[in-house]
Amino acid sequence: MQTNQLLINVLLYLFLPLWGIAGFIDWCCHRATKIEHNSGLKESLMHSLMGLQIAIPMALCLVFTVNALILLICIITFVL
Question: Any residues with CB less than 8 A from the CB of 73 and at least 6 apart, and which?
Answer without folding.
Answer: 56, 57, 60
